[in-house]
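This part of the workshop introduces the protein records we will be handling. An example says more than a description, so a record of this kind follows:
>
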Amino acid sequence: SFAERVRLLHPFDRPFSAEAGAYMLSRFSFAEKETDMEGLLRTVVQTLRLAREQQRAAAEQMQLAIIVSDGRRSPSWGDPSLWVRRGAGEN
């Protein structure tokens, strides 16, 4: 989840379950005053990179990041384009 800071709601090393999904959804409030989109994308790219590096010996894996946002752009977003390009280039 994210707004002013990013929190990983489901670790990659745990199977996803209905309970995990319910917990994740319960953490969404859309009540934050600002959104650090650039910080979110930087964290996503770095987190997915680390997960790939830790699973090098495993078979090829696909990675997907789904971002749920209120869609209101603000100056606090920063410039996310650099991190979008980096993420696309690494996957």
Q: What stands out?
A: Residues 12 and 56 are 14 Å apart (CA to CA).
